[in-house]
Amino acid sequence: MNKVDKLKKKLEYAFEEKDYYEAHQIYRTIYYRSITGEVFQELLELLFEGSMKLIEVNEYTSAIDLAELYVDTLIKSNTPVTNAVLENIYQLLSKLPSRLEADTTKDSNNVDRRNKLLNLAVKWSMQVSEKRFHRAKGHPALHFQLAKLLWSEKNWPAARTHFLLADQPEKFAEFLIDLHTGCAFQSEYDLFIAQAVLQVLCQRKVKVANVLFQSYTAKHPQIQSEPPYKSPLLNFIWLLLMAISLRNLAYFTELISKYRPTIDRDPNYIGYLDKIGQLFFGLPPPQKKDGGGLFQNLMKGLISKPGENSDGPSTNDLFSSDDDEDMSAYADADDESFMTASSSADALNQEGSTSNTPVKEPQSKRSKPEKMNVDLDLD
Question: Where are the compositionally biased (Polar residues) regions (predicted)?
């Protein structure tokens, strides 16, 4: 019997005697010896089972420690992202409490005890991912698991951040509808989807952005219609997605000019649109010394006038070989369909005002909206 087997025997005895402190220390000893000997698979199974056992007996501090060692072993062993590993991580995070009893005291910090575990999991998925974007932000399958968990816990800001990186647009749309209907004013229904679509486009994920927009507008109880929409902001996003599919710089210019009052509803939109202009239409980055950004580029004539044939750079020039998007999948739109869509949106926009008419809501059903400006790294 080798040393690790002897330790496992002691481990069984410690659980029989309910000596959970001793059991925790034995797990840590096995961890260090197995890491030194590079016996990873057996160690992973042991740490996961150990953490789950300690959870069952409410030894949460020790369970969190073993869970962190489990993910640390994933990192050290370069274990690839698989459904089985993702399920283990989800099980650990879902069963571990975000707060311990000691955290409820007046002087304790209101911090989720699982944060280190969550961050380690993202670090692991970044390390073992093959695609460039996943190496920078983490694997989308992991982000989806984290988003679902945090959504179930009503941790809206954190869940939203992970949905942005999860590549699950239909579920993201359901989440945004749940978030809006539960936490915000009825009249803000278009703001929630607009910001999300713009942020997804800043990740160069055109297909995800299209499906996200279509799912949200089809399922949201205040919309549930085909374009054009009653909301000018929704019409702007609809036409923007069409302009991106055409890669027509002139249409992008026209939209920015025509919908300027709508764009001004949120000061973050300009930054997103500036990045979108660079990614899809070949706009130069804003010069800090000039300070004009996107609108200064328009005024200087760096973009063609509406109606001119200016398609911008090819997709191959803008995207690396490991990007997910197949832009040819959005080539069904043409100039005529864009102009027709734009005209139909104009007619509907003119029935109201340049911004949304607020929806009348009973005061008893209103809840103070939660500020949801997630700072997504656009670079």
Answer: 339-358
What are the tens digits of pLDDT across the range 259-290? Answer: 999 999 999 999 999 999 999 999 998 776 55
In one-letter notation, the amino acid at residue 130 is: E
C-alpha–C-alpha distance, residues 240 and 272, integer Å: 12
- 176 & 259 share domain: yes
Same domain? For 84 and 177 the reply is: no
CA 256, CA 244: separation in Å to the nearest integer? 13
Q: Is residue 194 located within the same domain as residue 319?
A: yes
Q: Which domain holds residue 260?
A: 168-359+368-379
315, exposed or middle or buried, with CB in 10 Å at 0-12, 13-18, 19+?
Answer: middle
* Mean predicted lDDT score pLDDT of the chain: 85
What dihedral angle (degrees, nearest 10) is formed by the CA atoms of 374, 136, 203, 327?
Answer: -160
Q: Report whether pLDDT(318) > 70.
A: no
